[in-house]
Amino acid sequence: MSDANGRSGNPADLFAPVHGVSGHAGVLLPDGPQIDPLKIILDEPDDFDGWRDAARELVMAGVPPMGVVWQVRGEDGELFGNEGAAPPPSGKPMFSVPKPFIDMAKAAICHSDPQRFALLYALLWKLKANRRALEDRADPLVDRLEKLAKEVRRDAHKMHAFVRFREVEEEGGTRFVAFFEPDHHIVRREAGFFVRRFATMRWSILSPELSIHWDPATERLSEGPGATRAEAPDGDPLEETWRTYYASIFNPARLKVKAMLKEMPKKYWHNMPETALVAPLIAGARARELEMIERARNNLAPSAGVQPGGNVEAAWAALREEAMSCTRCDLFRCGTQTVFGEGPLNPSIFFVGEQPGDQEDLAGRPFVGPAGQLFDAALEKAGIDRATTYVTNAVKHFKFVLRGKKRIHSKPDTAEIDACRWWQEQERALIRPPLTVALGATAARSLTGKTLTITKAREAPLTLADGSECWVTVHPSFLLRIPEEDRRREERARFVEDLVRIRDRAAALA
Fold it and tell me: Is the pTM of this model over 0.70?
C-alpha cells in the first residue's frame, strides 16, 4: 500500500521511524526538512479527546504518520521521539471527516492494541487526501481498524451482560459492588450505560485498570484506582433467588454447549452466581430432555424426583421484584411505578397490551382503566374467564404528556419498546404459554421484533421464536377512540369474534 506521500510498502512501515545519517530517528516532512518524530503523550489509554486534539494539529501541520510516536502517560513507549507541540499549522483550512470515522475512532481507541493511535492517525491522514477512504473495505488499514472497533463493542456487550452486583452494607448505606475484567479499556466508556440502567442504585464497578463509583444522591460518577477480584464481595442473600430463577428457565432441549461457551466464556464465570449451576444442569440435561419427550408422548405427569419448572412461582416473584426498580429506559422517571403482569402462571392465554394507562399506573395493575373494562366485557362475551389468563404489557411504565393537571397517554417509541422487551420475554420464558395474543401494534412489535399492520396480521396466527403461536388483534383502547357509533359497534363485534377464535384455538392446544 502507499501513504498520502506516495510511499509504498507494508502498513506497519507507516509507523516506523527513519534513521538519518546522524544516527537519530528522523522524518522528512512533505514540504520541509527532516525532523525528529514528535512524541505525543496521552493522559489515559482511552483518551479520545486528547488523541483527537493532537491529531487535528498534527495533520494540519502536515506531519505524516511516520513523524509521530504515540504513548500513554506512565506506560513504556518508544525510545525515539521528542515530546512537544506540533509544528505550526500549514495555514490551510480545516477539513471535516465522515461521522463513521468518529464512531470507529471512539471505539477503536479503547482497544488494547498499542498501535491503535498510530493506525487511527494514518487513516485520518488518508481521509485528508481522500474523504471516501473509509469506504475502501479492501484497504488493510480500514479492515484492521474495523476489527479493533468490533472487538471493543463485543467486549462492551460482555460487560453489559456479565456484570453482577453484590449487596454490601457500608456506613453510608447499601452499596452494590461488581468486579469485571475486560479485555480492552472500556470501563470508562461504558460507565454511562450503568448510570442510565441503575440510576437509583449506589454502586461501584471494580476492574484491574480503574474503578468507577456512582452516587445517586449527588448524581456524581467518580473514578478510583484499579482493584483485584479478591477485593470484591463474594455473594449476597439475593443470589439464591437468582440461581432459582436461572435454574427454572433452563431448557435442556435447547442446550448448545459450544454456543454457550462462545457467548459466555469461562473467564467471566467467577463473577456470576448462576454459573455454579451450569455444570450440573449440563450433566442432567440429556436425562431431563428424554423425560420431557417421554412425558409429552405419554401425556404423563412429571415424576416426583424431577420437576422442571417447579420453582416458577419463586422465579416469577423474583422477576417481578427486580422489575420494580427497572431503569432500562427513561420512562421510570415518568410513571408512579412499574406495572407488571398478573394472572395464573399456567394460563390458557397470555395477553400482551401496549403500556399501563393513568389508572393502571396508580393501581399498579394492568387493564383496570376504561380500556380494561372494555377488555373484560369483550372477554365475557367471548366466553373467556379472565382469571384463567395472564395479562401484561409490552412497556411496563406509563408514558404521558401533561395537559393541565391531566396525564394524557403518549405512545412509546421503538427504543422504549425494545428496552422493555426483556421483561416480556422473561415472563413468557417462565410461563411458556402455548398461545400468546398481541393487543395492538406495540405488543406485536415487542413479541416479533417487527412492525406489523394489524389489519393484515390478524388474519392468521404467527409463529414466535420459541415455536408457540401468536395471534394479533386490536388494542381495546382503539375501540374507545372510534367516534362513529356504527363503526364502533362493528369493530367491537369484530374484536369479540377474534377472541372467540382465540378461545377455540387455546382449547385445541390445551
Answer: no
